Amino acid sequence: MSTGIRRLLFASAIAAGLVALMSITDMIVGVPFAGFSTMMDVMFLLSSLLIIYMIRQCFQELR
Length: 63
Known about the structure:
Blueprint: H1 3-28, H2 38-61
Helix pairs in contact: 1-2
């Protein structure tokens, strides 16, 4: 696998992980987004987990 693709996948995984962490924190404490909408937090969490799953599949497929 090319180093450029690997870096792009790692950067995407880090960004998706940060979004997941922020949405979990917002659901529990209400800090980053002031607890605006729980539905949006759940959607952010599901989408970031889906992105992380797709990145994992990419790494497995490109080995």
